[in-house]
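Box 3.1 A note on notation
Throughout this textbook, protein chains are presented in two layers. The first layer is the amino acid sequence; the second is a token string describing backbone geometry. Keep the layers aligned when reading.
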Amino acid sequence: MASKNMAASERRAEHLLNDLLDAQGWDRRRPPYGDVLFQTEYRAFPELAMMMRSASKTGAGYGIPEAILLDNDTNQPVAVIEAKARSKDIELALEEAQHYATAFISKGFRPVSIALAGTDDVDFQVKVTKWTGTDWEAITYDGAPIGWIPNYEDVVKISALGSGSELRPSMPPQEVLARRAEEINRLLRESDIRDEFRPAVVAAIMIALWQSGRTGGTVSRDPKAILRDINHFCTEAFGTKKFGLSNSLRVDPANKKLANNGRRIVAILERLNISVLTAEHDYLGQLYETFFRYTGGNTIGQYFTPRHITSFMAEITDIGVKDVVLDPACGSGGFLVAAMDRMLKLHSMKREDMVDVVASQLIGFESEPITAALCVANMILRGDGSTGIHAEDVFTSKTFPKASATVSLINPPFPHKKTDTPAEAFVDKALSGLDDGGRLAVILPNSLLAKKDKGVWRQAILKNNRLDAVCQLPDDLFQPFAAANTSIALITKGIPHDTKRKTSFVRLQHDGFVLKKSARVRRDTVPDQAEKAVDAIANKVVEAGFSGLASISESDEWSVGAYIEAAPTEDKELTLAVDVLLRRLASFYTRYAPEIVAQRLAILAREIDAAPYKEILTKQRIGNSQKLPQEVDTVGGAFEIFYGMKELHSRDGMVPGKTLIISPTEEYNGCYGWLDFSQVIEPPFVTVAQTGSIGEAFVQLEPCAVNDDCLVLLPREGIQLVDLVLAAATLHAERWRFSYGRKLTPQRIADFRLPKSASARAWVEEKIKVNQTVIDASLKPYLAESEAEFEALEDAEDLADALIAIDDPTELSWKDVKFESGIE
């Protein structure tokens, strides 16, 4: 019986070790896929096996540590772990971990030794030591030995030659935090906590653990007491001044499911040292924000402007240690934290100094009680509970600080209905809170910067204030929570805008993040242009495709896309766009081969009239096109640009038929469907979506009717098929300039420069030939079935040949090209 109990205890100790490793981002798989070797697994690695051959406790055989943590790139040992089932055996575990680590140290490596003793979530101990060259020294935080397994980055840091033993902890990887947050989310869902209330529950538990850690208390793990303790410590952290808000951050003491799941949630958060790192404001703040972002379903997107963007805005407003920072719509406090972080970066500040900053220099207003409580909690983790957060409507508050702040950072809530407060009202309020010379950085929807009906508001802003810069943000910045296209406007209060002064316009296309599943995550392989953007704004840098300068006056638009010169499309971007373009073209023929053949027969039978587009258009529309810029090697120089067919503005009441209809969709080469419509445009030409999938461009090789939400680009004389493909790819690359607020028009695309590279043209021609084989294969069986019908149509032989399939990708004349039927 004793041996069975011991075996069970050892298994529980292994489970605890696994959990602690997972919490810090260690990959428990064996190399080369992971970082950990358990017990005798090292014997598969000859160099490690050689070092451990005489490292047993008796010295007569191989040592068997609980685990060895490795550098995944070199397979060198960075830590040795020994575990014991009983908490009281911690010193024995440490002695054995040091013994095993010595075997590696004798060969020139510098692994730390890690001891774990215990099996219970509460009753366990961890000790970490490093070899100094003469003795083993405990790794400490704030002067006290740490009680957790460090992550890889921290292990490398503390084991480095000449490094001290005091550890400033680093954040675990975002992927690790996301997994932990997903587990918490699942536990809250199982506890019947609705999405919109989960952030408040997580915040309450985090604040309770933080408060218990700094006061020497303990949050009970007993289901009968755990929820009561969470509420007690949370209320204590808020203090008497914010007691009302603390009621917004509490857990329901009658929720038995949460009481049972609470033990695991607390364990997850404690693994991340929330109750220990009470002086590590930035660590706790990042942890708080990260868990919020991943916990709470789609409702949580309203709470956060991404941390790196709040930091970016603190940079471009040049926040200093003496600035008073105002956020009139502070949400959970991200901008105020960014201001604080920049002060810390520029000046070495003690904790008591930061407490004063939180209390007197950071001012926020938030009308929603739970969100305001979340913001106060964010401040508590960085201060002592005294904050300048006001749980009030900023538009009716009697405590609003008029003309007293020096910086305002704000991301106004975007209105979803007409009764919502418009974003411009928040801008006006923020400016009223600034002293003259104060700086405002505000995130605004691009439509507000471009729409003509907002010109009066923009003009009013410039009458009394200076527009210093506008920076367009990544398109997917707020996804998956919102698909808003936004820009930052940088404004100085109280200095009327000089129309002769140049305003900076910057496109921050890449911020180092990619959208993966339910979150944007940082990737080293993705460029981060934030620092470059800060420099472009500060030093008025002009760079095609990235930044530009312009004089702005009266009601001019503030859209970044209007003032940055188009850069030649990079080869990588071009090849990707061409590849997508041609695959969509091939998919159209694969999906609609029967309908394509049916339309060709209908045209031959004169059921559908195919004509050059200019023969259909009025003289006025042709004249309008002729007025557009026509510079060589531009879209306007290579194409005549027209709007689509007004008759197809609405397809309501139109019945299915044989005519191909092109509309502003990105699927199947822009194909809307097949309707009963008698007029089509002779190909080839390019279509560009003005609405819907704005900027998506396609090469049309079949006669079709084009909805007037698209532009039609007719090739001028001498233009080849490869030019159509390159033009469509160029338009695709420049689509970032347009939105529902800033329409894609002939005038705005005519100046786009087309690629001139001979190698690019040759590559595209080869891709067209390959694509043609797919098209031919898709059409061949249906053409064979219809051969008799084609032959039966009198006086249509030449046209029939012209409609079958493109053979020479350098030719363009729709009726004169030599074609092959594909019919044996």
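Confidence is low (pLDDT under 50) at residues 297-301, 802-824. The radius of gyration is 33 Å.
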